[in-house]
Design a protein that fits this description.
It is a single chain. This protein has 161 residues and is mainly α. The protein has a single domain, classed as Hypothetical protein af1432. 62% of the residues lie in helices and 0% in strands. Helix 5 packs antiparallel against helix 6 and helix 6 packs parallel to helix 7. It is globular and about 55 Å long.
Length: 161
C-alpha cells in the first residue's frame, strides 16, 4: 500500500500544526523497528489510522493527531531505560507528557496515546479510535520489521539460483 499522505489535504489539515514541528521532526533520528525511523513509523500509524477512522465514522482529527504523537519520546528504547516499568508501560506516558507540551490534548487523544500498547499492557482502550491506533501500530511494527527482512532474504535466495 502506498501511503500518499503528503497529497491528502484533509489529513494534512488535521496534523499540519504538529507534523512539521521540531519535536515531531526530531523523531527521524531514532530507529524504530529495525528498518524504519520513529517519524516514518508515527506518520504511517497516523495516516493509516486516519483512513480507518474515516471509513468507520470515527473521530478522524483525534485519531490522526494522537496517532502521530503516540510515540513522541526522545530516546532509543533499546539502549536507555526511562523510569520504572517496561518500555511498553512507560513510553506512552512519556509520549503523552511530551504531546501535552506541544499541543492541547483531548480526553480521546489521551486515551489513544496512553493505551496504544494494549496487549503488552493491561488497561484496555475506551474508544474505537484507541483500538484503531493500537491495532494499526502493531500492523505497522510488523510491516516495518518483517517486510524488509523478507525482501532481503528473498533476494539472497534468488542470488543462489
Amino acid at each position: 500500500m502506498t501511503l500518499d499522505w503528503q497529497n491528502d489535504t484533509e489529513y494534512l489539515e488535521l496534523v499540519e500544526d504538529l507534523i512539521f514541528t521540531d519535536e515531531v521532526q526530531s523523531l527521524k533520528q531514532y530507529k524504530q523497528h529495525h528498518y524504519s525511523n520513529r517519524l516514518e513509523h508515527s506518520i504511517s500509524v497516523s495516516y493509516r489510522s486516519f483512513l480507518l477512522a474515516k471509513k468507520w465514522n470515527g473521530d478522524v482529527r483525534a485519531t490522526a493527531r494522537a496517532g502521530l504523537l503516540h510515540d513522541l519520546f526522545f530516546y532509543d528504547w533499546r539502549e536507555e531505560k526511562m523510569g520504572e516499568g517496561t518500555h511498553a508501560y512507560v513510553h506512552p506516558r512519556i509520549a503523552l507528557k511530551n504531546a501535552k507540551e506541544l499541543t492541547e490534548i483531548s480526553p480521546l487523544e489521551e486515551d489513544i496515546i496512553v493505551k496504544h500498547m494494549f496487549g503488552a499492557t493491561i488497561a484496555p482502550p475506551k474508544y474505537k479510535e484507541s483500538y484503531i491506533v493500537t491495532l494499526v501500530d502493531k500492523y505497522c511494527a510488523c510491516e516495518e520489521a518483517i517486510s524488509p527482512f523478507y525482501r532481503k532474504m528473498k533476494l539472497r535466495a534468488l542470488s543462489f539460483v
